[in-house]
Amino acid sequence: MQELQNKLGKTLRPFNALGPVATIFGAVNTGAWRYERPVVDAARCLRCGVCGRYCPVDAITVQKSGDPCVDIMWEFCKGCGICANECPQKCIIMEEEGNENG
Amino acid sequence: MYNEKTLAKGLVSHGVNTCAGCGLEIVFRNVLAVLGEDTVVVAPPGCVALFSGLDDVTNMKIAGYQCNLENTAASAAGIRAGLDALGNTHTTVLAFAGDGATVDIGIQSLSGMIERGDRVLYVCYDNEAYMNTGIQGSSSTPQGASTTTTPAGKSTARKDLIQIAIAHGIPYAASASVAYLPDLQKKVKKASRVQGPSLIHVHTPCPTGWLFPPAKSIELCRNAVLTAAWVLYEWENEKIAINYTPERLLPLEDYLLAQGRFKGLTQEEIAEMQQMIVGKYRRLLAAAEM
Amino acid sequence: MAEYMMLDGNAAAVQGMAMSRVKVVAAYPITPQSSIAERLSDLVASGELQATYMRVESEHSALSATLGAQLAGVRAGTATSSVGLALMHEICNAASGMRVPIVMPVVNRALASPWSLWCDHQDSMAERDSGWLQLYCQNVQEIYDLTLMAYRLAEHERVLLPAMVCFDGFFLSHSMQKVAVPAQAEVDSFVGPYTPKNVWLDPTDPVFINDLITMEEFTEMKYQMKEGFASAADVFNEVSAEFAERFGRRYCAAEGYMTEDAEAVIVSLGSMSGTVRHVVREMRSRGEKVGALKVTCFRPFPQKEVARLLAGVGRVAVFDRSAGLGAAGGPLFLEVKDALDGKAFVKNYIGGLGGRDVGASTVERVFADLRAAREEDDRAPVWCDVKEHPMQIRQVLRFV
Hints:
Number of domains of chain A: 1
Structural class of chain A: alpha+beta
CATH topology of the largest domain in chain C: Rossmann fold
Low-confidence stretches of chain C: none
Order of helices and strands of chain A: HEEEHEEHE
CATH topology of chain A: Alpha-Beta Plaits
Number of helices of chain A: 3
CATH class of chain A: Alpha Beta
Shape of chain C: globular
Radius of gyration of chain C: 21 Å
CATH architecture of the largest domain in chain C: 3-Layer(aba) Sandwich
Helix content of chain C: 25-40%
Mean pLDDT of chain A: 92
CATH superfamily of the largest domain in chain C: Thiamin diphosphate (ThDP)-binding fold, Pyr/PP domains
Largest interface: B-C, 47 and 42 residues
Strand order of the largest sheet of chain C: 10-12-11-14-15-16
Number of strands of chain C: 16
Oligomer: heterotrimer
Strand order of the largest sheet of chain A: 3-6
Strand content of chain C: 15-25%
Mean pLDDT of chain C: 97
């Protein structure tokens, strides 16, 4: 919606706001919480998209073509295991963080 | 305008302080994905406040306001009136509150909003207790569930939020579940078009409070629907429509005993609960037929 | 060009809100405010007031909805009394903390228990630390005028704090008086349109308002409010100077009446200030050097003005229309005593509770008591007009 403001000929200027207001769109490094991480067997992956649909963090991107079939944002993945549990092919395994296959 | 310090695929950033496997996180992302950036969200304290932010940082890229615990509906109604007075009828006003904030302390405020016909899309994410403050019981906690204020298992049945809304003559109300996301999205889209109040009551799993492994969040809520512990239905055009009728109901035990909060139940209690739940489901089916 | 209207206090408050073009009104009825809710509804229904009327289901929701509407970017309003204000308490603190300049008439009525429908200041005094500006009106003209001034004061970029315009229930709310009402164009010119000056809800320029604040920044945000109150004292004088120039009536944060050479002064809030002035005139005609001090702006409290106006006055009576239970005295007394800093003999009088009238004879008795009081006397507040045997007013037959 910033485009609308640009259309109105407005530019961004700093202003000293008073009181409680959050002005920064940020994120916590939730990836640091992980005890285990999902490992995808690319050979068996159908690229169905179910893992991406149910990831609470929205850290999963499933590509219809190209590698990797399942791309995971490691900065944020909490290692909850929902993707592994929901995969219809059962081709995602949760492996101990730091011990996963290369 | 937000100073963007993180990249996000959608309107919610990826690193939120919600528990691993949090159902609310799935709901919030999905609801905002449907509604888009022309939305103002009103959220009270509770687990959703984790998205609202801390000090100068928020996890959402849209305009929002943290109200008080019991006035989400009234605050949202006021914002709607203010936007309308400015000639802005296109921005969606989204009220997003938990079960405690809705059926307990916020029931009066919600009641007034519906009775007045205020055009607010009210999403109640129901994790069945006051989770953010440490798993205390709410009036949406199911019978038999252990919480810190119902340690031996809640002795009373839960309030029926959708029926309360229907009794107010709400134009559109629907239940939803994290296990049925396309269904949730469709309902949010429908609700956003209602020229009046709308309510979506979403079953939101909480691994921390319900005591189950986070990986099972979706599976558990799917079983809730398959056992009729949670029924997916809509109230529209003054009629009830059941959105999904499982071919055969799974035994309630499959749903209950996968959660630590129900582990104190006896077989008799489970049988009684099954009867109550199936009875309620059958009554809904009958109401849908009429 | 002003015209005159016969308005009671409630109607004057509505006249002020309506002419200031509030766009959203959320009102819940409560005696003796109810005719405000009704009259606003009439004006909206007839189209005289172009606004949305939200028939809310409680005062808590009334202020919540008003706050939401003003955060969306329009002037919004509500009004209340007594337990209704008490119910709003939580949201009063929210509004001020968020620096949202809502103007709200408060029709002063005692707080339960005991239940009372009638005037005292307990309701607004219970909100004196809520971060709201507080103005007290002596008569119906003041209600209208101070309402207009309140919008300018509250919405000023150096203030940005919500404001209560307080006036006595029944004594003013239901008292019909002749009020000079300027033309709409003149009011538009003075009050001006509403422009949100701090943060507001705009989907095209989004921020998140009122998130959780840690000990890292909470103090600074309260400090900002303190600065707002400090500015409000100056802004009040600026706004009232402009008001005087445009409309011919001058308001002061504290106003003296024959205090210059007075030996004894009664300080008061609200409608009883008129009664005190009346008694002062009478006593002066008998050669007694007495005076009256009316406090109009209670928050921020005009310490300097009070000290200046009472300089040289030997004996000061402060009349509180709220009980000040458990404290050294009522809230007005504590402020005045501190402002005078030992430079006068100050005594507290508590009265007019639960609608008990503060008549001329009561005022005369206060002056008499003040004159007779000795420095070494007990400093506990004097409770005025208490019946004989106050501990035995209710005999109950009981089974034993």
